[in-house]
């Protein structure tokens, strides 16, 4: 029994690491630019296809292709902010929602057209292997993904707290007007925020590739979890999103084990509902950190 | 759809009259010079309609079907065509049903009304075949199909199904589990959709009669991110066999996770996406030893092996379940037309209903015999149990169809 619970917790934490990369991106964009990016999942998908094609054409390991997917999606993020999102920033939220939602549909259908709906997998030497400790097992590919995800989250935290640009970003998140008065250029900060958020999504895609199939709709699977995590961990709060993602992974895993394999998400949504009822600002408190 | 048509209409209006004349004139001239001399020396060709989804979500398998259909017609024509009709050639008229039920209805209708068809084959997916068969019944054109839905044998007189029915697949799967263990303890995991639920219920209903104990019966939400918790449950259930009623993506995750856990269970992946070359391409070596069921396999007979070799040469992949069955179906049609000595669809139907073959390409089926009962079902029809061995799909069950013994994993 104890072993079953421990295994379920391990499984939950590992997949929670991937949810974290996606949700940190969403929360960062919301915190800094005040835009909800519905297309975040599609950038995970793009990250996956980048890794898939590099592995398929040149035999490059998905972990090595992080070095491609992260910068490529960073640039894409900067371009999207500069040419698209910048134009719809204003007092009205609707154009922003339509823009990112349209972007999601566009990317999804483009992928369907270019890559077809087929599932693509990459097989690495560590894809099917696992470490066994006592009666427990830890899949290698997922452990690697988890460790890299945590490292990237840590790096982001250091960036936000120690560099001028990071501090400017947090300042802009806390109060855009005051930040502008203090001489912070919001456009530049927004571009970097989008870039980092999309780079994280791309990283999530590359990290997923050794153990998950790429297909055009793959982003939708992860973005749903990301949105729940973002709300649960307080909108705009990076640490909150990280912790909420890990919690959700564990809740889902325990739910599948003890409630039923078709109701793992029920536990996750029950958690969301209770949080909203008793602590409407989310677990991270009211402040963006 | 509608707007598309409007747009193209507007476009054609804008085209100049001269351009229109040049184009249509060209086509008319080409058809006049092309078609007339053909008639001069050969008997009228016999038209066979082929309805397959070559675009849309089912396109991948549909395209393979069309390649097999062309190969079969070529084989028959190269061997001298239909002798009782003066060596008439079979003429395959292919139509794309776009993986869509509405399109299937209109395309079947269009195909029948705009051509004089002797018979039709199609559509691979049961949902589409059911529609095409309704239209063909009304038009009194015989339709032969490998689709497995039992619905196709109800209240129909022009529909023929030479291969195993859906209801037979569950039984075969349960019996295969007895090859693995004297006392099979089966875990059934299935996606909570209509397909998953109906297939798994079929397994549950027949389990007791087959002496199989089901120790876990677990629905899951399709498209999960992680199979580990589910496999954790299978592990706790103490099962020695695992039936997974899943689509490709989930099945890949399940197979990988079973390996990671180090769980010793015989996996049976059923049919459909599991028995196509793409499955092995995606899963790789892990697919070795995995079992499934199919209505056709390329090693059922020497003739089937021959067709397989030719198909492999053309497409680079082995002849998969549905495409292989389709080649046999084409030969069944040729046999019927030969005996009917007529291209008339009603006479072809009569001849099909008295078909009785036990050798040659038309008899390429598990069991090696085809004879239709009054419901259009092959009275000898049964599924074949298959296993992935060395990157190839080998028949292992029942003993009369087995080409190699079951590899214990």
Structural overview:
The complex is a heterodimer of chains A (289) and B (409). Chain A has helices at residues 2-33, 40-58, 66-88, 94-115, 140-162, 164-174, 176-181, 186-208, 218-232, 238-258, 264-278; strands at 130-133, 136-139. In chain A, strand 1 (130-133) and strand 2 (136-139) form a beta hairpin. Chain A has a single domain (2-278), classed as ABC transporter involved in vitamin B12 uptake, BtuC (Orthogonal Bundle). Chain A contains 11 helices and 2 strands; from the N terminus they run H-H-H-H-E-E-H-H-H-H-H-H-H. Chain A is globular. Helices cover 73% and strands 3% of the residues of chain A. In chain A, strands 1-2 form a two-stranded antiparallel sheet. Chain A is an all-alpha fold. The mean pLDDT of chain A is 90. Chain B has 409 residues and is α/β, with parallel strands linked by helices. Chain B folds into 2 domains: 46-164 and 300-378, Response regulator (Rossmann fold, 3-Layer(aba) Sandwich), CATH 3.40.50.2300; 167-294 and 385-397, Response regulator (Rossmann fold), CATH 3.40.50. Chain B has helices spanning 2-14, 17-41, 59-78, 101-114, 126-139, 166-180, 194-207, 228-237, 248-261, 277-283, 302-315, 321-340, 345-353; strands spanning 46-52, 90-96, 117-122, 143-144, 159-160, 185-191, 213-220, 241-245, 266-268, 291-294, 356-357, 370-371, 384-389, 392-397. Chain B has a 5-stranded parallel sheet, with helices on both faces. Chain B has a 4-stranded parallel sheet with strand order 7-6-8-9, sandwiched between helices. The radius of gyration of chain B is 23 Å and the shape is elongated. Residues 1-14 and 30-40 of chain B have low confidence and may be disordered. Chain A binds chain B through residues 4, 7-8, 11-12, 14-15, 18, 116-121, 123, 127-130, 132, 137, 139, 211-213, 215, 217, 221-222, 225, 252-254, 256-257, 260-262, 264-265, and chain B through 57, 59-60, 189, 192, 218-221, 223-226, 228-230, 232-233, 236, 248-249, 252-253, 256-257, 259-262, 278, 282-284, 286.
């Amino acid at each position: 029994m104890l072993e079953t619970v421990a295994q379920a917790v391990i499984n939950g934490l590992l997949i929670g690491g991937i949810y974290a990369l996606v949700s940190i991106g969403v929360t960062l964009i919301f915190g800094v630019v005040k835009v909800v990016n519905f297309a975040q999942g599609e950038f995970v998908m793009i990250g996956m296809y980048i890794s898939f094609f590099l592995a398929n054409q040149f035999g490059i390991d998905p972990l090595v292709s992080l070095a491609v997917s992260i910068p490529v999606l960073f640039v894409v993020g900067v371009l999207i902010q500069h040419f698209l999102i910048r134009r719809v920033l204003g007092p009205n939220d609707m154009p922003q929602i339509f823009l990112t939602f349209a972007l999601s549909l566009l990317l999804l259908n483009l992928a369907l057209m270019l890559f077809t709906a087929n599932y693509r997998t990459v097989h690495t030497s560590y894809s099917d292997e696992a470490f066994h400790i006592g009666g427990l097992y830890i899949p290698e590919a997922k452990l690697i993904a988890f460790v890299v995800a945590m490292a990237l989250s840590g790096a982001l935290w250091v960036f936000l707290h120690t560099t001028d640009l990071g501090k400017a970003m947090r300042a802009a998140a806390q109060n855009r007007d005051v930040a502008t008065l203090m001489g912070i250029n919001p456009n530049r900060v927004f571009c970097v925020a989008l870039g980092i958020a999309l780079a994280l999504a791309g990283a999530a895609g590359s990290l997923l590739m050794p153990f998950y199939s790429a297909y055009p709709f793959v982003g939708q699977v992860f973005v749903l979890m990301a949105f729940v995590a973002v709300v649960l961990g307080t909108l705009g709060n990076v640490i909150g999103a990280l912790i909420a993602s890990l919690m959700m992974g564990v809740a889902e895993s325990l739910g599948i084990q003890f409630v039923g394999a078709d109701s793992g998400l029920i536990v996750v949504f029950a958690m969301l509902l209770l949080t909203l009822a008793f602590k409407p600002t989310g677990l991270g408190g009211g402040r963006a950190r | 759809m509608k707007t598309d048509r409007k747009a193209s209409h507007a476009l054609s209006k804008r085209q100049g009259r001269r351009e229109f004349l040049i184009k249509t004139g060209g086509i008319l001239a080409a058809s006049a010079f092309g078609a007339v001399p053909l008639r001069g020396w050969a008997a009228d060709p016999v038209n066979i309609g082929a309805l397959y989804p070559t675009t849309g979500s089912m396109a991948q398998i549909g395209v393979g079907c069309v390649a097999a259909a062309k190969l079969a017609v070529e084989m028959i024509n190269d061997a001298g065509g239909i002798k009782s009709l003066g060596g008439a050639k079979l003429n395959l008229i292919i139509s794309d049903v776009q993986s869509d039920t509405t399109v299937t209805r209109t395309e079947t209708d269009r195909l029948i009304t705009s051509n004089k068809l002797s018979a039709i084959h199609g559509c691979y997916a049961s949902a589409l075949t059911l529609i095409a068969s309704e239209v063909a019944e009304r038009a009194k054109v015989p339709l032969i199909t490998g689709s497995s839905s039992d619905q196709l044998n109800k209240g129909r007189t022009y529909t023929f199904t030479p291969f195993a029915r859906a209801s037979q697949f569950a039984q075969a799967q349960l019996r295969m589990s007895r090859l693995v263990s004297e006392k099979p303890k089966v875990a059934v995991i299935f996606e909570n959709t209509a397909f998953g639920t109906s297939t798994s219920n079929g397994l549950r209903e027949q389990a007791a009669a087959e002496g199989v104990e089901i120790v876990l019966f677990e629905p899951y939400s399709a498209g999960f991110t992680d199979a580990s918790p589910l496999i954790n449950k299978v592990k706790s259930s103490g099962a020695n066999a695992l039936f997974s009623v899943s689509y490709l993506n989930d099945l890949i995750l399940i197979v990988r996770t079973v390996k990671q856990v180090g769980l010793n269970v015989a996996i049976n992946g059923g049919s459909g996406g599991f028995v196509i070359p793409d499955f092995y391409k995606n899963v790789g070596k892990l697919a070795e030893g995995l079992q499934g069921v199919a209505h056709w396999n390329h090693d059922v007979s020497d003739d089937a092996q021959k067709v397989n070799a030719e198909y492999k040469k053309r497409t680079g992949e082995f002849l998969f379940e549905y495409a292989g069955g389709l080649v046999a179906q084409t030969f069944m049609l040729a046999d019927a037309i030969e005996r009917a000595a007529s291209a008339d669809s009603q006479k072809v139907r009569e001849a099909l209903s008295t078909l009785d073959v036990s050798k040659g390409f038309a008899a390429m089926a598990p069991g090696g015999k085809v004879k239709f009962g009054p419901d259009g079902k092959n009275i000898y029809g049964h599924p074949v149990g298959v296993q992935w061995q060395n990157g190839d799909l080998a028949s292992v069950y029942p003993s009369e169809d087995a080409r190699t013994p079951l590899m214990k994993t």
